[in-house]
Amino acid sequence: MIKIMALDVDGTITDQNRIICPEAITSIKKGIESGLQISLISGNVIPVMYGLKTFLGINAPVFGENGGIMYYNGSIEKFFDKTKPLEFLEYISSRSLATPYFTNQWRETSAAFSMDPGNEAIVSKEAEKWNLEIVNSKFTWHIMNPGQNKGYAVEILKKMFNANWDEILVVGDSDNDNAMFTLPVKKACPDNATDSLKSISDYVSPESYGYEIGDVMAKFNII
Ligand SMILES: O=C(O)COP(=O)(O)O
């Protein structure tokens, strides 16, 4: 039986323009009413996650910056530091390889940027030299510390709610969701997910951009 459902945000409960899907909100509400713990794990910043948790009535902790920071029970917990990601961002920006993203003013554990697709290989190589990780959410590139990823957040949820791996269901659509899909949890994705996530999912919904949430819940006998 599924006890915890961890959802990515952008592209999973929203469309390509980040507009939240009303059907996803309804499904989340039904899931919570049926006794499920629902968490959101995003690359986005913690003030946004705090807003989503508050206004959608999310009951479990929410995570920002790909698992680097958590909001729960009125407090924020930071698991990583932003010093090195910011130094790296300064370095690649000074070489005109990247443009810092305005949301960095609210980031506490990582840094975000945009870049020309032609720069991806060189920036990845540089990040490796700096012992940092870069990942793309399809919306933003993120610079993170080693071990900072959405899988780290799922492990925190597992401990917090004393769940077995097979009692956790993750749903995501893009590369920054890979780390939670490599855990021995149940995995589902919308039809708009990357081929790599689809290939390792237990269930690929025919629905996309938030419409899959209700379908996935029905598939796993949640609602
Ligand atoms: O990169 C972002 O800000 C959003 O990322 P998400 O797909 O993890 O929600």
UniProtKB/TrEMBL annotation:
Its EC number is 3.1.3.18. Pfam families: Hydrolase_3. It comes from the Archaea. This is Phosphoglycolate phosphatase. Gene3D superfamilies: 3.90.1070.10, HAD superfamily/HAD-like (3.40.50.1000). One of its GO terms (cellular component) is cytosol. GO terms for molecular function: magnesium ion binding; phosphoglycolate phosphatase activity. It comes from Ferroplasma acidiphilum. Keywords: Hydrolase.
